[in-house]
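Appendix C: a fully annotated inverse folding record. The material below is reproduced so that readers can follow the format used throughout the book. The structure is listed first as C-alpha cells, followed by the designed sequence.
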C-alpha cells in the first residue's frame, strides 16, 4: 500500500493535560489566557495563574459530590470561561469531559446524555435544564449561569464550585498516564447516528507537539474564536492550540453567527490566527468590498495565517488572502483522529482536494479499495458502547479506517469522497457524487448546497438548495467578473443556473456521472430537521431521505410537494419546470 509520512520528527509530548496547565500557569502566570465580553460589551480576561487556581478549586469541590477518577461529566453548554475552567478541571482530575451541542432539542440531548453513562451534568442555564428528562443516572447537576433556585433547587451554582478549597493543591493528578481517557466527543453524524469517540491525553497533546514543529506560535498570539467546543475542530484543534502555546483566546461574542460582529471584534482583538469555515470567510470578505477601512483592518499584516476546515476554501476566496501575502492553511482529519491528520504546505500552489502531508508522528496510507487509513498517537482508543462500529474500525495491523476515499499525489493526500457516499448506477458504474457537488457549488455561489443522487438509477440527478440571503442581496461586485447574471429570485436562478450546471457537467469526464436534471428547492437546510449537523455540514443521507419525493419526481414520478421547486432539465430541448 502507498504510505505518506512527515519529513519532520515528532517532538516531546507532554504526558497529560495537568502538566501542560501547571507548566503554562508558571510560565505565563500574569498573561491573559482567555477573554470574553461582559454585559457592557467590553472584553474582560483571566490570567493563567487565576484560571489554574479556579481549575484546582473546581476539582477539589467536585470531590464533595462523590466525584472520582474515571467519572464522566456531560457539558450541555456553549463556549464560555466557566465551561473552559470546569472542563479542564474534569480532564486534569483523571476524569472524562463529554461536551454536547448547547442547543440540542430534548430528544437528541437526552439520547446522548443517557448513552454517555455520565453521573454529572453541567448546563449553561435554563434552556438546557428545560430539555432534560428525569434521568436517574445523573446524580448531580451544575449550572454555569444563574438559574431559578426555587424551580431548580437541586442545581449547584458555579459560584460554589470556584469557592476556595483547602485541599485544592491535591485535587489535580500530575501522574495521569498518556493513554488515560479524558474526553468523549460525539461525531457530527454526517452520515447517520452520532458515535462517541474516546480520546486520551496523548491524542490531544501529541497533536500539539506535532504542530509545534510546523508553526511558529507563542504567548503573543491572539485568537479570535467562535468554533464550538463540542466539535473537534473547535474543542480540540483550535482551543488546545491556543492553550498549549500560551496564546490569548478571545471568544467571538456572536459565536460566529454575525459577520458584522466578527468584524467589530476583529478591530478590538487584532487576531494573529483565525480558524473558521468557508461560509464565514465568504461573509467577512464580502464586508470588506467597497470599504477600504474594513479591508485594511481585516487583511492586516499581523495576521500570520488563516486556517480552514470542514470544507475546502474556494479558490476565489483563498486568492483574496494570498494576493495580500496572508497564508492560507487547510487540513484534514476526523474526530477519531483528534482531529488533525494532514496540513497543506503554504509554499505550494493550492490544488483542489489536496489536503497536504501528514503531521509529524502521523502516518497515512491508501488501502487496496482506495480508503484512507491512519496510524499515530492522535488516533482514538475506540467508540464507547458501540461494538458494531468498533468491529470494523481498525485493520488487523492496527490502522484506523477513516471511511474517506483518497489518493496520494506529489503534494500530499487528495480527498475524493466519503466511501459510503459513492453509489452504483443500474448499469454497475460507480459515481463519486462529491466531484459534481463541489463543481456545482464552485460554479455558482448562489448555490449553498448541492446533493447528487442516483443509486440504482440509470443516471444521476441533483437537489439544489439556494443561498437565500445572496438572492435577496446579489453580489454585483463579484458576480459580473465571473459571468454571472446576478439572479434576484428563484425564477431567475433557475434560468441562469442551467449554464452553470452544464459547465459543471462538462468538467466531469465520465459521461455516466453527469446529471440529467436538477431540482432547485426553495428551502434552507437546518439543524432542526437534521439536514445540517451541529458543525453546519450537510448531512447528505438525511437530505436524501427528507427530499425523497423530489428525487422520485426527477425520475418521472408526479407527486405533489409542499415546497416551491424549479426543475432544470439538461436535455437540449427540455424546458424548465416550476411548481409546488
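Designed amino acids, in order:
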Amino acid at each position: 500500500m502507498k504510505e505518506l509520512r512527515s519529513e519532520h520528527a515528532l517532538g516531546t509530548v507532554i504526558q497529560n493535560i495537568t502538566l501542560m496547565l501547571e507548566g503554562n500557569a508558571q510560565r505565563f502566570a500574569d498573561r491573559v489566557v482567555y477573554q470574553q465580553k461582559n454585559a457592557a460589551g467590553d472584553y474582560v480576561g483571566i490570567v493563567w495563574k487565576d484560571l489554574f487556581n479556579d481549575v484546582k478549586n473546581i476539582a477539589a469541590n467536585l470531590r464533595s459530590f462523590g466525584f472520582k477518577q474515571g467519572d464522566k461529566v456531560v457539558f450541555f453548554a456553549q463556549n464560555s470561561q466557566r465551561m473552559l475552567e470546569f472542563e479542564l478541571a474534569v480532564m486534569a482530575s483523571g476524569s472524562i469531559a463529554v461536551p454536547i451541542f448547547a442547543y440540542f432539542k430534548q430528544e437528541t440531548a437526552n439520547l446522548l446524555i443517557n448513552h454517555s453513562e455520565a453521573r454529572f451534568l453541567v448546563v449553561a442555564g435554563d434552556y438546557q435544564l428545560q430539555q432534560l428528562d428525569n434521568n436517574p443516572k445523573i446524580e448531580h447537576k451544575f449550572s454555569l449561569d444563574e438559574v431559578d433556585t426555587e424551580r431548580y433547587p437541586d442545581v449547584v451554582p458555579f459560584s460554589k464550585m470556584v469557592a476556595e478549597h483547602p485541599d485544592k493543591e491535591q485535587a489535580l493528578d500530575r501522574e495521569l498516564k498518556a493513554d488515560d481517557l479524558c474526553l468523549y466527543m460525539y461525531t457530527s453524524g454526517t452520515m447517520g447516528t452520532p458515535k462517541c469517540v474516546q480520546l486520551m491525553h496523548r491524542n490531544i497533546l501529541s497533536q500539539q507537539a506535532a504542530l509545534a514543529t510546523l508553526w511558529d506560535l507563542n504567548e503573543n498570539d491572539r485568537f479570535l474564536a467562535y468554533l464550538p467546543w463540542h466539535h473537534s475542530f473547535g474543542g480540540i484543534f483550535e482551543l488546545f492550540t491556543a492553550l498549549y502555546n500560551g496564546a490569548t483566546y478571545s471568544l467571538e461574542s456572536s459565536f460566529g453567527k454575525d459577520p458584522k460582529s466578527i468584524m467589530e471584534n476583529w478591530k478590538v482583538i487584532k487576531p494573529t490566527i483565525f480558524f473558521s469555515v468557508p461560509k464565514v470567510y465568504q461573509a467577512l470578505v464580502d464586508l470588506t468590498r467597497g470599504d477600504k477601512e474594513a479591508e485594511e483592518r481585516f487583511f492586516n499584516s499581523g495576521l500570520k495565517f488563516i486556517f480552514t476546515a470542514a470544507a475546502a476554501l474556494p479558490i476565489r476566496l483563498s486568492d483574496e488572502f494570498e494576493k495580500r501575502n496572508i497564508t492560507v492553511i487547510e487540513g484534514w482529519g476526523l474526530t477519531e483522529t483528534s482531529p488533525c491528520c494532514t496540513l497543506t504546505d503554504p509554499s505550494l500552489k493550492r490544488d483542489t482536494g489536496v489536503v497536504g502531508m501528514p503531521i509529524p508522528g502521523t502516518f497515512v496510507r491508501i488501502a487496496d479499495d482506495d480508503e484512507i487509513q491512519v496510524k499515530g498517537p492522535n488516533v482514538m482508543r475506540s467508540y464507547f458502547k458501540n461494538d458494531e462500529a468498533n468491529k470494523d474500525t481498525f485493520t488487523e495491523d492496527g490502522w484506523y479506517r477513516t471511511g474517506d476515499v483518497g489518493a496520494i499525489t506529489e503534494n500530499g493526500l487528495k480527498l475524493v469522497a466519503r466511501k459510503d457516499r459513492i453509489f452504483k448506477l443500474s448499469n454497475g458504474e460507480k459515481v463519486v457524487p462529491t466531484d459534481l457537488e463541489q463543481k456545482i457549488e464552485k460554479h455558482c455561489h448562489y448555490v449553498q448546497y448541492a446533493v447528487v443522487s442516483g443509486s440504482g438509477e440509470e443516471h444521476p440527478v441533483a437537489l439544489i438548495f439556494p443561498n437565500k440571503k445572496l438572492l435577496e442581496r446579489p453580489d454585483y461586485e463579484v458576480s459580473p467578473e465571473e459571468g454571472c447574471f446576478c439572479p434576484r429570485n428563484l425564477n431567475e436562478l433557475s434560468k441562469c443556473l442551467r449554464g452553470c450546471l452544464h459547465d459543471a457537467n462538462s468538467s466531469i469526464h465520465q459521461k455516466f456521472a453527469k446529471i440529467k436534471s436538477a431540482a432547485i428547492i426553495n428551502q434552507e437546510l437546518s439543524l432542526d430537521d437534521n439536514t445540517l449537523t451541529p458543525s453546519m455540514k450537510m448531512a447528505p443521507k438525511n437530505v436524501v431521505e427528507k427530499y425523497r419525493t423530489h428525487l422520485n419526481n426527477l425520475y418521472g414520478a408526479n407527486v405533489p410537494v409542499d415546497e416551491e421547486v424549479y426543475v432544470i432539465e439538461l436535455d437540449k430541448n427540455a424546458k424548465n419546470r416550476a411548481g409546488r
